[in-house]
Amino acid sequence: MKKEYLTIVEEYLSSTEYKLIYIEERGSRNNLILEIYVDCKGALNLDELADINRDLWGLFELKGLNRNLIKIVVSSPGIERPVRFHWQLYKNLGREVEAVIINEEKVTGVIIKILEDPEPIIILGIGKQKNFSERELLFKDIGELKYKIAFK
To answer: Which CATH number fits domain 86-147: 3.10.560.10, 3.30.390.50, 2.30.30.100, 3.40.50.1000?
Structure first.
Protein backbone atom coordinates (compact mmCIF):
# COMPACT_ATOMS: atom_id res chain seq x y z
CA MET A 1 0.00 0.00 0.00
CA LYS A 2 2.91 2.35 0.68
CA LYS A 3 3.62 2.55 -3.06
CA GLU A 4 0.17 4.06 -3.70
CA TYR A 5 0.71 6.73 -1.06
CA LEU A 6 4.19 7.45 -2.37
CA THR A 7 2.92 7.87 -5.94
CA ILE A 8 0.24 10.36 -4.88
CA VAL A 9 2.65 12.34 -2.68
CA GLU A 10 5.34 12.53 -5.39
CA GLU A 11 2.78 13.51 -8.03
CA TYR A 12 1.36 16.26 -5.81
CA LEU A 13 4.79 17.64 -4.82
CA SER A 14 6.05 17.66 -8.43
CA SER A 15 3.98 20.78 -9.11
CA THR A 16 5.29 22.60 -6.01
CA GLU A 17 8.59 23.91 -4.69
CA TYR A 18 8.61 21.17 -2.03
CA LYS A 19 10.50 17.90 -2.27
CA LEU A 20 9.81 14.61 -0.52
CA ILE A 21 12.53 13.69 1.97
CA TYR A 22 11.01 10.66 3.74
CA ILE A 23 7.70 8.88 3.96
CA GLU A 24 7.03 6.44 6.79
CA GLU A 25 4.07 4.30 7.84
CA ARG A 26 3.45 3.58 11.51
CA GLY A 27 0.79 1.51 13.19
CA SER A 28 -1.11 -1.56 12.12
CA ARG A 29 -2.81 -2.33 8.84
CA ASN A 30 -6.16 -0.71 9.72
CA ASN A 31 -4.78 2.03 11.97
CA LEU A 32 -2.04 3.64 9.92
CA ILE A 33 -0.33 6.92 10.60
CA LEU A 34 1.47 8.23 7.54
CA GLU A 35 4.40 10.56 8.26
CA ILE A 36 5.47 12.65 5.29
CA TYR A 37 8.62 14.76 5.54
CA VAL A 38 9.09 17.52 2.99
CA ASP A 39 11.61 20.31 2.55
CA CYS A 40 12.44 23.14 0.17
CA LYS A 41 15.32 25.53 -0.45
CA GLY A 42 13.63 28.30 1.50
CA ALA A 43 12.04 28.39 4.91
CA LEU A 44 9.01 26.23 5.62
CA ASN A 45 6.27 27.48 7.90
CA LEU A 46 3.43 25.69 9.68
CA ASP A 47 0.74 27.12 7.42
CA GLU A 48 2.44 25.65 4.35
CA LEU A 49 2.75 22.25 6.02
CA ALA A 50 -0.92 22.38 7.05
CA ASP A 51 -1.94 23.19 3.45
CA ILE A 52 0.08 20.24 2.12
CA ASN A 53 -1.46 17.98 4.77
CA ARG A 54 -4.99 19.08 3.84
CA ASP A 55 -4.37 18.70 0.11
CA LEU A 56 -2.86 15.22 0.48
CA TRP A 57 -5.67 14.03 2.73
CA GLY A 58 -8.13 15.16 0.06
CA LEU A 59 -6.22 13.25 -2.62
CA PHE A 60 -6.13 10.11 -0.46
CA GLU A 61 -9.91 10.45 0.06
CA LEU A 62 -10.50 10.72 -3.70
CA LYS A 63 -8.55 7.49 -4.27
CA GLY A 64 -10.19 5.72 -1.31
CA LEU A 65 -6.85 5.38 0.47
CA ASN A 66 -7.95 7.15 3.66
CA ARG A 67 -9.96 4.18 5.02
CA ASN A 68 -6.99 2.64 6.84
CA LEU A 69 -5.45 5.94 7.88
CA ILE A 70 -5.95 7.43 11.32
CA LYS A 71 -4.07 10.54 10.28
CA ILE A 72 -1.27 11.90 8.17
CA VAL A 73 1.46 14.11 9.54
CA VAL A 74 3.30 16.44 7.17
CA SER A 75 6.45 17.92 8.65
CA SER A 76 9.90 19.21 7.81
CA PRO A 77 12.64 16.67 8.52
CA GLY A 78 13.96 18.49 11.58
CA ILE A 79 17.48 18.94 12.79
CA GLU A 80 17.77 15.41 14.17
CA ARG A 81 17.37 13.70 10.78
CA PRO A 82 20.25 13.24 8.33
CA VAL A 83 20.46 15.53 5.30
CA ARG A 84 19.53 13.66 2.13
CA PHE A 85 20.07 16.30 -0.55
CA HIS A 86 22.76 18.97 -0.90
CA TRP A 87 20.20 21.72 -1.59
CA GLN A 88 18.90 21.30 1.98
CA LEU A 89 22.17 22.83 3.21
CA TYR A 90 21.72 26.27 1.61
CA LYS A 91 19.44 27.56 4.35
CA ASN A 92 21.91 26.29 6.94
CA LEU A 93 25.09 28.05 5.86
CA GLY A 94 27.10 28.80 8.98
CA ARG A 95 25.69 25.85 10.91
CA GLU A 96 27.93 23.14 12.34
CA VAL A 97 27.55 19.65 10.86
CA GLU A 98 29.06 16.23 11.29
CA ALA A 99 29.70 14.24 8.14
CA VAL A 100 30.59 10.58 7.98
CA ILE A 101 32.56 9.98 4.81
CA ILE A 102 32.14 6.68 2.96
CA ASN A 103 35.52 5.54 4.32
CA GLU A 104 34.05 5.90 7.86
CA GLU A 105 36.04 9.07 8.63
CA LYS A 106 34.08 11.62 10.68
CA VAL A 107 34.48 15.30 9.85
CA THR A 108 32.97 18.08 11.94
CA GLY A 109 32.88 21.66 10.74
CA VAL A 110 30.83 24.69 9.81
CA ILE A 111 29.22 24.92 6.37
CA ILE A 112 31.02 27.79 4.63
CA LYS A 113 29.99 27.32 1.03
CA ILE A 114 28.24 24.93 -1.33
CA LEU A 115 29.48 24.58 -4.90
CA GLU A 116 27.34 23.05 -7.64
CA ASP A 117 29.61 22.64 -10.62
CA PRO A 118 30.18 19.98 -11.91
CA GLU A 119 28.81 18.13 -8.87
CA PRO A 120 27.87 19.27 -5.36
CA ILE A 121 30.81 20.07 -3.08
CA ILE A 122 30.42 21.22 0.49
CA ILE A 123 33.16 23.38 1.95
CA LEU A 124 33.48 23.08 5.72
CA GLY A 125 35.43 25.30 8.06
CA ILE A 126 37.34 23.06 10.44
CA GLY A 127 38.89 24.03 13.77
CA LYS A 128 39.02 27.21 15.81
CA GLN A 129 39.80 30.72 14.55
CA LYS A 130 43.59 30.48 15.03
CA ASN A 131 43.92 27.04 13.43
CA PHE A 132 41.07 27.38 10.95
CA SER A 133 41.24 25.30 7.76
CA GLU A 134 38.85 24.45 4.95
CA ARG A 135 37.88 20.99 3.82
CA GLU A 136 36.08 20.17 0.58
CA LEU A 137 33.74 17.19 0.59
CA LEU A 138 32.02 15.76 -2.47
CA PHE A 139 28.40 15.32 -1.47
CA LYS A 140 28.32 11.89 -3.14
CA ASP A 141 31.15 10.72 -0.82
CA ILE A 142 29.21 11.56 2.33
CA GLY A 143 27.48 8.55 3.86
CA GLU A 144 25.61 10.59 6.46
CA LEU A 145 25.45 14.28 7.27
CA LYS A 146 23.73 15.60 10.39
CA TYR A 147 23.43 19.02 11.96
CA LYS A 148 25.15 19.42 15.30
CA ILE A 149 22.84 20.78 17.95
CA ALA A 150 24.43 23.76 19.69
CA PHE A 151 23.41 24.53 23.26
CA LYS A 152 24.20 28.10 24.20
So the answer is: 2.30.30.100
Check if the beta carbon of residue 151 is closer than 8 Å to that of residue 135. Answer: no
Share of the chain above pLDDT 70, in %: 98
Closest CA relative to residue 87, chosen from 57, 114, 53, 55: 114
Asked if 106 and 100 count as a contact pair (C-beta separation under 8 A), the reply is: yes
Q: At what angle do helices 46-62 and 2-13 cross, to 10 degrees?
A: 130
Nearest to 35 by CA among 22, 45, 46, 44: 22
Question: Does the N-terminal peptide bond of residue 77 adopt cis geometry, omega within 30 degrees of 0?
Answer: no
Q: State pTM to two decimals.
A: 0.81
